[in-house]
Amino acid sequence: MQSAAERAELWVGTAVLAVAAGFLIWAGSGSGFGRGLGGDGYELRAAFPSVDGIDVGTDVRVAGVKVGKVTGIDLNPQTYLAEARLRIPAEIQMPSDSAALIQSDGLLGGAYIELQPGGAPDNLAPGDEIEDVQGAVSLLSLMMKFVDAQAGGDQK
């Protein structure tokens, strides 16, 4: 027979597990877990000169709205470009002249890939490559250019 203390511990433990499961479900649904990764979408490719800040699982956005994820990044040994694979839902059809840009969420924010739809009448097919790309811009290199320009301007 269980004592009252043992029953109380059992109920508290059950409640803690239920709350933990609820948080996992909430976190998964809020982050879009499963959206853009399942078999219901299609994959596009984009070759960037630099993918700083981008990794597998990074958001893919259209007009600022998260629509998919980066599913893989590989280095092409012939071109030395970073080839990213992007999975987006089947209901989002991108025109063939669309662009892919690596954007930042601010100075200290993370990076994401922004897809900018073009105006072509035909759409990209699964597995197609987005030709118009813009790689990541290094904040450090921009700051160094600014400092160099300021230092050069003071000596005139």
Automatic annotation (TrEMBL):
Boundaries of every Mce/MlaD domain copy: 40-118
Stored InterPro entries: ABC_MlaD (IPR030970), Mce/MlaD (IPR003399), MlaD_Phospholipid_Transporter (IPR052336)
Superkingdom as given in the UniProt entry: Bacteria
Protein name per its UniProtKB record: Outer membrane lipid asymmetry maintenance protein MlaD
Species whose genome carries this gene: Paracoccus broussonetiae subsp. drimophilus
Taxonomic path: Bacteria, Pseudomonadati, Pseudomonadota, Alphaproteobacteria, Rhodobacterales
